[in-house]
Every structure is written in structure tokens, then in C-alpha cells.
């Protein structure tokens, strides 16, 4: 698919702030499943600082805005061509040893219930096991927006039995860890949901390291593996570590946030 | 019965390095000694040097006892130690460069991958980034114990931000002030060049983007930190700024410090803040001590951070057992300094042996420090041993065990006069464009009779450490 993405985040402050610093993981990296075309990041009144590719293969840009300012908009606009690789991440340049992703964080730490869920499943091989874990998580946590928050842990989401993509990803990471499989959180975009309706928010899923196949994506929220509807931005231990935007604001203004994500399929060229 | 090596009296004879001190002690009247001891304490209190050694916690206002009797090394003893320490510091830095790069030592099967990549101190954020000159640990504190005339063992390595060097400098300063005659009559190698060598070392690892003379700062968590005295002391002696996180900010790929003359670019940050707190945008988001965006600048080569974030993976007690292997693997040399024999409790055979011999061993937590969370078998009651056994059973991989070492003794002033007390040593090796070591270090002494625990939180004191020149 040829996709056009517009992702606008507006921060408004009830009183002007002195400035802000952001670390953005908002540029997709090339791999067999995606070829990045024109891609731009713009921050109103912002200055671009450090920019580099990290060991996970993610492109990171630091931006600063010097205030006083009461509104800042971060706009991503880009073109990308995607291909279905059945979730397998191939041709992605990264150097971090997969064992690093066996680490639990506060958000992904398995509790007794997650252990039980993970251990209720077995597979013929690592790939089969990963698929079954993803299916088990899909079944155990219903997709219900607005019930969980960004700080909800995998254990809490499972106890609730409800959550959104972040919760599914955290729970799946926890379950994979129970089986000693490296797993990580991936943030990105999704063109359309399984039923064909447009997906108008940022998205997240998990990747599990499956033996010789390497990293394979699993989207437990949609009960599938990422295909050509998915755009991969970056990875980390959990939602906080993989966050597309990490920032600090200097000042005491209360922040309100407005996010608009649009992922459109481009017209076929004649 | 265990015999302990007495560094002053060997085979009934006063050893040469202590000959002059022996006379000095014998001719000193008791009332003079008491007066001098009070004077020394008064000096320490006035300087304000009351923090806990090595960040052990405890009462920050408590004075660490200073023992006026110096610990003395002969030139040839020191030269061997120096070679061993420098060799170890080189190997540790080579290891760090390797495990944040290709991981050859793991691929070669010399160190288990798990111990490296699943280590809490391993930072994936710096994988693939090579700091200037490939140096990760710029100040390596190596804890050494002596068990015989020619027997020295490394107890542990400290690759992050080892503290205590201000004691090395202050102990010398106070001894020189109180007993100038001793220094006129002995050939004692100086240590007061340490701050200048530290400054030069830090400046030598400025990033390639640095223009002109590198600007070095010390980043402290602030005056509530138990080692704040040391931070301000070193900043003062080096002639560099002591800053807190809020004094620094990032802009367009560099780090700046706020000054009365406007922002000034900073090239090298000697941080005395743990990894987790140095940048809320990379590590703990709730940290108020760090500099937001610092890690992005670091990873794009705009500033140097000493020690490098992630350097701690080289100094935990599980990795420790492999340091001799690192020396062979990276340097192609045989280790000059020995490790203490160490049993790792995640190995079945080791586990069995340790559990059967708990009362004779010292057991430590892999990530513990400061003499807490450890069992000294021979000094513990049966109940204490059994309670510790339960802790080990719950999580064997969290522990290592070592034999109870026969730490050497040094003559030490006690109420009754002079008596032998157990000591250890921490020298501070500096790594930049060169590897340097000032002749000396911090000697800690267990002041309680028979005690083998030198930690200040457990009744330890400090001594001036002399290296005699030829």
C-alpha cells in the first residue's frame, strides 16, 4: 500500500510556558515491510537538535521550543510504501541483542494471573507458541476504549478484562517473558481496522523474538499479525520506553492535548 | 586458627616501610597523641567532611573516624599493584566497548550472554554508540585486600562513580598539617596532583564537536546527597563548575550551562548521579535531578558523560568473576592481580558447596554494596546463618559467595595504644587519553577488634596511605 500519513499533536497551555524539550521517535525506519518516502517533522517555533539512529534502529530527533509559548503543534507528514511480510521484521538494521528484551518493567511485569494465562498455552514450536499467546491475550482482554489509562499495567488490564492496544501489547509481552521469549513494544500507525473502518489514532502492538525467524509482530488487539496496513515507528520495553514523543515542559501551565491522525491510501498512479 | 598478615611486623621484625613510624609512635607521649587525635577530628569537622564513604547511607553528619597511623607501601609493592590496577581498568573498558558493540566475548563463549544482556545495569539506549576514545569508565575504583607479603586480591571493581577520593586527599592534607616533620624525614610520594590529572583526563574525552578548550562540569544531585561534600571539593580543586540538573539545558544538539554571562556550552559532564536519573526523556520520567534531552545530545556526540551511562554492567559481582577472563581475552595478558575465589549460586555445584559451608563463607548480594545484605559466616550466629539461608533459597541467582579472607592488619591507634586492625584499599585509576594512577588511595580500617568489615556504616575508619619513593 502507498500510505499518506498526517499526524498532528497540539499542546495548549493555560498560561505560557518557558519552553519545552522533546525527544521524538516519529520517523519510520526502512525494512522489507516498509519503504519510507518523503517524511517531515515540523514543530511550531521549534529548533531541531540532536538527530541519530539508535541501537534499536529507530531514528530519534530532539526538538526544543523556546518560550514563552502557549501552544505548540508537532506535525508529521509523510509518505510510505508498505508490503505484507506476515508480521516478520526483516531487513531492519538494529544491533541490540534480543536477550535485552527479556527485561520486565513496571508495566509488563507478569503477576500470577498473567503467568497462569501464559502457561495455559503451549505450542509446537516458538512461532506457534507466540501465535497462541497472542490469541490468548486477544481473548482475555476485550477491546474497550476508555477503561484503561497510559499507566495501566498488563496485570491490571488482564484483571479488568478490558483495554486498548497498549494493554494488549503489554499483556502479550508479559506472557512471552513467562515463556522466556524476548518481547517488546512497538508503536506505529494503522491504516484500517480488521473490519475496514479507518483507524484514526496511533497504534501499538508487540514483537516477539521467535528463534531463527527473528522479530515477529503480533497485534493482539486486532487478533492478527501486522501486514501492509501497518506502519512501524519504533520499539522499546513498554509504552513509556517506546513512546513516539517524550518531553518535558518548563513552566507551570496546565497542558491540554489534541491529537489528529490520518492514514490514507494514495490513489494508484496511472 | 587463621593467621593474619601484619603489614608492620613480619616474622617478629618491624618491616622497613614502618621502621620510621615505629620510632615515631614509641616516642610520642600519650597526652600528645590524644591532643593530636582531637585536633584531627576538629579539622575534619571544620572542613565538613562527614559524608558516608561510598554512598553507604546512614547519618550524613556523622564523622568517619580518622586514624593517624598511616598505612605504608614500598615502592616495589606499589609498582606491582599499579600495573595490576591499570591492566584491570583497561580490560574493564575494553569489555564495555565490546558489550555495547559486537559482543565478541559473548560470541566467543567466554561470558554467558545472560549475565551481560539481562543485567539490570546494561543500557540498551547506548548500544552502538562509542564514546570518545572508547572510554566508558573514566574513574575506576578497585577495592583491594592483602593477605600476605606478596598476596593481593581484588574484592570488587567500581566503574560508575566511585566515591571516597576526597578522603584520600584530606587524609594526606591533615597528616601533613599535623606532622610536617614526618614528611620532611620520609620520602612519601605525593597524591595532591589527583585533581589536576582528573581534570586532564575528563578534558581528554571531550567530544570531537568540542571547539577550543573543553568545558568540564561536575553534575551533582545536590546538597542533600551524602557525597555532596566530595562533589564540591573536587570541583573546587579542579577549578570547574559544580552544577545541578536545573543549571543545564539542551539546545540545538548541545548542552549549555546557565551563567551570569549567559549560556556557556558544556563539553564534558562528570556526573555523580545514577543512570536512572540523568535524563527523564530517556530513563526515569519522574527524575527531577537530571537534564531533559541530555541523552540525545550524548548519543549524537554533542557532549561526553563520565562515566558513560551503562558502565555499571562491568562492575556487578556476577560479572566480577569474569574479569580475569577479560584481561586474557582483550589484552592477551595474564592477570597481575587475582580475583577472590567466588562461587556463583546459580550454578548447581557452587550452590551445593555454599549451602553446605555457609558458616565459613561470606555471601553477598550481586547488586548489593556498603556491607549491607551480606553474611559473614564465621562472625554470625546460627540463627543469622539460617535466616540468610532462607533468603538464598528464595533467589539463588541474586548471590555470590567467597571465602572469608584473612585481611591484613595495620597498626592502628586504639584506646590502649597501638594494635593491629584489618584494612583494605581503594585506589582510583583514571582513564582518558592515558591511564594514570596516583600513588595512594583510600585505606579503610575496621576499628573494632577482630572485625573484618571495613565499611564506615559498620564501624570502619580511614587512614592516610603512603607510597615510599625509591
TrEMBL record, chain A:
The protein's matches in Gene3D superfamilies, at most eight in alphabetical order, are given as: 3.10.620.30
Q: Which InterPro entries does UniProt cross-reference here?
A: Bac_transglu_N, Papain-like_cys_pep_sf, Transglutaminase-like
Q: Which UniProt keywords apply?
A: Hydrolase, Protease
Tell me where in this chain the Transglutaminase-like domain is found.
157-222
GO BP term, pick one: proteolysis
Q: Which GO terms describe its molecular function?
A: peptidase activity
UniProt entry tagged with the keyword Nuclease: no
Question: What name does UniProt use for this protein?
Answer: Transglutaminase-like putative cysteine protease
The scientific name of the source species is Paracoccus lutimaris
Lineage of the native species? Bacteria, Pseudomonadati, Pseudomonadota, Alphaproteobacteria, Rhodobacterales
UniProtKB/TrEMBL annotation, chain B:
| InterPro entries named in the record | ATP-dep_Glu-Cys_Ligase-2, CP_ATPgrasp_2, UCP005522
The record, for Pfam families, names: CP_ATPgrasp_2
Domain Circularly permuted ATP-grasp type residues, every copy:
70-446
Official protein name in the record: Putative circularly permuted ATP-grasp superfamily protein
Supply the source organism for this entry: Paracoccus lutimaris
Q: What is the lineage of its organism?
A: Bacteria, Pseudomonadati, Pseudomonadota, Alphaproteobacteria, Rhodobacterales
Amino acid at each position: 500500500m502507498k500510505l499518506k500519513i498526517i499526524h498532528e499533536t497540539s499542546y495548549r497551555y493555560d498560561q505560557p510556558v518557558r519552553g519545552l524539550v522533546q525527544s521524538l521517535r516519529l520517523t519510520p525506519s526502512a525494512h522489507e515491510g516498509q519503504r519510507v518516502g518523503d517524511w517531515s517533522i515540523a514543530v511550531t517555533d521549534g529548533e531541531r537538535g540532536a538527530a541519530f539512529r539508535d541501537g534499536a534502529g529507530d531514528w530519534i530527533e530532539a526538538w526544543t521550543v523556546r518560550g514563552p509559548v502557549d501552544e505548540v503543534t508537532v506535525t508529521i507528514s509523510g509518505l510510505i510504501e508498505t508490503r505484507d511480510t506476515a508480521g516478520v521484521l526483516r531487513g531492519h538494521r538494529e544491533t541490540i541483542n534480543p536477550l535485552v528484551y527479556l527485561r520486565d518493567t513496571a508495566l509488563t511485569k507478569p503477576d500470577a494471573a498473567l503467568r497462569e494465562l501464559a502457561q495455559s498455552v503451549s505450542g509446537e514450536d516458538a512461532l506457534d507458541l507466540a501465535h497462541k499467546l497472542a490469541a490468548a491475550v486477544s481473548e482475555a482482554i476485550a477491546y474497550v476504549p476508555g477503561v484503561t489509562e497510559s499507566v495501566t499495567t498488563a496485570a491490571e488490564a488482564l484483571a479488568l478484562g478490558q483495554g486498548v492496544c497498549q494493554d494488549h501489547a503489554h499483556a502479550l509481552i508479559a506472557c512471552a517473558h513467562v515463556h522466556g521469549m524476548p518481547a517488546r513494544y512497538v508503536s506505529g500507525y494503522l491504516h484500517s481496522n480488521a473490519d475496514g473502518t479507518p483507524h484514526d489514532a496511533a497504534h501499538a502492538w508487540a514483537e516477539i523474538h521467535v528463534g531463527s525467524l527473528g522479530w515477529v509482530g503480533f497485534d493482539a488487539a486486532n487478533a492478527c499479525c501486522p501486514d501492509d496496513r501497518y506502519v512501524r515507528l519504533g520499539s522499546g520495553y513498554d509504552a513509556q520506553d517506546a513512546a513516539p514523543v517524550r518531553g518535558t515542559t518548563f513552566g507551570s501551565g496546565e497542558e491540554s492535548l489534541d491529537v489528529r491522525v490520518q492514514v490514507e491510501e494514495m490513489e494508484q498512479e496511472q | 586458627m587463621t593467621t593474619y598478615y601484619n603489614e608492620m611486623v613480619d616474622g617478629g621484625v618491624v618491616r622497613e616501610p614502618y621502621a620510621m613510624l615505629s620510632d615515631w609512635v614509641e616516642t610520642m607521649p600519650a597526652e600528645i597523641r590524644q591532643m593530636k587525635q582531637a585536633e584531627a577530628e576538629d579539622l575534619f569537622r571544620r572542613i565538613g567532611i562527614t559524608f558516608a564513604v561510598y554512598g553507604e547511607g546512614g547519618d550524613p553528619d556523622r564523622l568517619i573516624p580518622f586514624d593517624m597511623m598511616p598505612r605504608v607501601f614500598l615502592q616495589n609493592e606499589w609498582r606491582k599493584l599499579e600495573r595490576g590496577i591499570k591492566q584491570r581498568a583497561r580490560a574493564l573498558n575494553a569489555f564495555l566497548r565490546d558489550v555495547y558493540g559486537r559482543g565478541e566475548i559473548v560470541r566467543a563463549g567466554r561470558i554467558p550472554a545472560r549475565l551481560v544482556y539481562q543485567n539490570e545495569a546494561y543500557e540498551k539506549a547506548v548500544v552502538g554508540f562509542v564514546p570518545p576514545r572508547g572510554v566508558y569508565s573514566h574513574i575506576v575504583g578497585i577495592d583491594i585486600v592483602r593477605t600476605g607479603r606478596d598476596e593481593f586480591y581484588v574484592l570488587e571493581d567500581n566503574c560508575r562513580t566511585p566515591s571516597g577520593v576526597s578522603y584520600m586527599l584530606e587524609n594526606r592534607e591533615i597528616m601533613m598539617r599535623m606532622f610536617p616533620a614526618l614528611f620532611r624525614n620520609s620520602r612519601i610520594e605525593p597524591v595532591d596532583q589527583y585533581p589536576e590529572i582528573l581534570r586532564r583526563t575528563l578534558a581528554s574525552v571531550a567530544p570531537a564537536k568540542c571547539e577550543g578548550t573543553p568545558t568540564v562540569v561536575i553534575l551533582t544531585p545536590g546538597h542533600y546527597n551524602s557525597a555532596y561534600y566530595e562533589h564540591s571539593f573536587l570541583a573546587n580543586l579542579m577549578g570547574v563548575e559544580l552544577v545541578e540538573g536545573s543549571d543545564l539545558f539542551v539546545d540545538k544538539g548541545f548542552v549549555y550551562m546557565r551563567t551570569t554571562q549567559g549560556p556557556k556550552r558544556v563539553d564534558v559532564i562528570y556526573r555523580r548521579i545514577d543512570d536512572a536519573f540523568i535524563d527523564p526523556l530517556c530513563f526515569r520520567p519522574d527524575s527531577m535531578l537530571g537534564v531533559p534531552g541530555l541523552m540525545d545530545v550524548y548519543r549524537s556526540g554533542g557532549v561526553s558523560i563520565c562515566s558513560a551511562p551503562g558502565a555499571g554492567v562491568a562492575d556487578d559481582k556476577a560479572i566480577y568473576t569474569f574479569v580475569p577472563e577479560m584481561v586474557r581475552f582483550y589484552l592477551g595478558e595474564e592477570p597481575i592481580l587475582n580475583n577472590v575465589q567466588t562461587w556463583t549460586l546459580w550454578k548447581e555445584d557452587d550452590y551445593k558447596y555454599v549451602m553446605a559451608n555457609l558458616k565459613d563463607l561470606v555471601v553477598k548480594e550481586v547488586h548489593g554494596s556498603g556491607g549491607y545484605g551480606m553474611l559473614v559466616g564465621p562472625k554470625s550466629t546460627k540463627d543469622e546463618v539460617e535466616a540468610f539461608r532462607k533468603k538464598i533459597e528464595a533467589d539463588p541467582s541474586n548471590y555470590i559467595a567467597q571465602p572469608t579472607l584473612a585481611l591484613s592488619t595495620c597498626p592502628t591507634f586504639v584506646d590502649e595504644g597501638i594494635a593491629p586492625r584489618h584494612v583494605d584499599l581503594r585506589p582510583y585509576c583514571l582513564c582518558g587519553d592515558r591511564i594514570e594512577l596516583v600513588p595512594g588511595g583510600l585505606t579503610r580500617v575496621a576499628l573494632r577488634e577482630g572485625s573484618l568489615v571495613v565499611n564506615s556504616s559498620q564501624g570502619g575508619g580511614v587512614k592516610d596511605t603512603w607510597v615510599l619513593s625509591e
